[in-house]
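Continuing the series of single-chain predictions for the mutant panel. This is the parent chain; the variants come on the following pages.
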Amino acid sequence: MTRDQFLQMKTVRFFIFLWIVILPIIFIALPTLEMVAGERENDLTPLWAFCVWILGPWVGSIIWKWFASRVKKK
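Parent structure:
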């Protein structure tokens, strides 16, 4: 399966949509707005969610690259 075929799968597009749009709204924007409005105590949940959201694809690409190099050697 090529990269283009992989990215055209409906499930992959769904997960990309979740990662780019839905998860940041739920785990970063809404808690931050609640803290600013005073409806919630200040905590580090939005910061941790932002770090996971930013670093997750980077870690995934490193793992994907590592597994791809392992498969080609066999």
